[in-house]
Design goal:
Layout: H1 2-61, H2 66-94, H3 102-137, H4 144-186
């Protein structure tokens, strides 16, 4: 009887150690994912604020034309970027990764990767739309400056977002191996 009790205590101690160790690893995994989102949001915020300030200044101080349209579109576009960055920061600051179980952790990890792939596709479409507007400006002399300025702005914004999103998609991908190792320990 004493032997069974010692076996039970030993099993409970080992199980407790295993669960605590796994929970710590899972917490660290979730914290890293949130740190990546936080960094992504900060870079997007800085880009957005710089474009809003510069764009607003030149929209007011330049004559109507291609350059003014370019800066005007940069400022307007980055109001949306700033809103997106704010939502990302809100998500990170209200998240409690200690409350994430295995299922939620895996789900959030892969949802983030899918969202990044969607964003990359949108970034390409923004860049192509800018190219189309720029090309379209050659055939419409009345609105040429506006179309060309807006087109150049969309190409710049789409190109920046494309590079940013590819970099952060790769950052999320680096976590796949960590997640696989964590999951292999519980199976």
């Amino acid at each position: 009887m004493m032997h069974n009790m010692l076996d039970t205590i030993e099993f409970m101690a080992l199980f407790s150690y295993f669960v605590t160790n796994q929970a710590g690893d899972l917490l660290q995994f979730n914290q890293i994912r949130l740190e990546i989102i936080h960094t992504h949001a900060l870079i997007l915020s800085v880009w957005a604020i710089a474009n809003i300030l510069i764009g607003a200044y030149y929209t007011v101080h330049l004559e109507v034309g291609e350059r003014q349209a370019f800066h005007h579109m940069n400022a307007a576009w980055n109001l949306i970027n700033l809103g997106i960055a704010w939502l990302m920061l809100y998500q990170v600051n209200t998240a409690d990764p200690a409350q994430y179980g295995w299922l939620l952790s895996v789900s959030k990890h892969y949802q983030t990767q899918k969202l990044m792939l969607l964003n990359i596709g949108l970034d390409v479409s923004y860049t192509l739309a800018g190219l189309l507007l720029h090309e379209h400006s050659r055939h419409h002399p009345v609105h040429s400056a506006l179309l060309c300025g807006f087109g150049r702005s969309l190409m710049l914004q789409g190109g920046f977002l494309l590079v940013l999103d590819i970099c952060f998609y790769n950052a999320y991908l680096t976590q796949n191996e960590t997640l696989r190792l964590l999951l292999s320990q519980i199976v």
